[in-house]
Design a protein that fits this description.
With 155 residues, this protein is an all-alpha fold. It is built from four helices and no strands. It has helices spanning 3-19, 38-56, 60-87, 93-134. Helix 1 packs antiparallel against helix 3 (60-87), helix 2 packs across helix 4 and helix 3 (60-87) runs antiparallel to helix 4 (93-134). The protein is rod-shaped, with a radius of gyration of 24 Å. The N and C termini lie far apart (79 Å).
Length: 155
């Protein structure tokens, strides 16, 4: 593979790997339960975000980066093989096809990472909503939970 194709392909793989991440929080709306103080809602939010992270069980950014790199490597290998078969000894054909394969493979890996991110985000959101609902907060589309404020402190 010539130097310019190598640099272009590697740069693209790095850029796409950098783009492959999901939000570190929920992508769904949750409202405080009726009569629930906002400070308590914020505490619930922090607890439920941590709970949701634990439920997905993986670091989504690591998964996404791995898919982009795997796609880039597979694309380069397929491109090189195609270049060798199609080039019939034409100088530079194998390198050009490997470079093109690296670019296409990187894009395919980024697409797979995006699909994986959407699945992980959905799992995160479900766990987050379950936790928030269980703590008495409102989830749009579901009946509001009943919130019973804690009793006043005894003196």
């Amino acid at each position: 593979m010539n130097l310019s194709n190598t640099i272009l392909g590697a740069s693209l793989a790095v850029v796409l790997a950098g783009c492959a991440s999901i939000p570190e929080g929920p992508s769904v709306a949750v409202m405080p339960g009726p009569g629930k103080p906002f400070d308590q809602f914020n505490a619930d939010n922090a607890i439920c975000m941590e709970f949701a992270r634990q439920q997905i069980g993986v670091n989504p950014n690591d998964v996404a980066r791995e898919q982009v790199v795997t796609g880039a490597a597979a694309g380069a290998a397929l491109g090189a093989a195609s270049g060798a078969l199609m080039g019939h000894g034409h100088e530079g054909q194998t390198e050009s096809m490997a470079g093109a394969g690296l670019i296409v493979g990187s894009a395919a890996g980024a697409n797979a990472a995006n699909q994986s991110n959407m699945t992980l985000q959905r799992r995160y959101d479900i766990a987050y909503q379950q936790c928030m609902y269980a703590k008495g907060n409102q989830i749009p589309g579901y009946a509001p939970p009943r919130y019973t404020p804690p009793p006043p402190p005894s003196h």
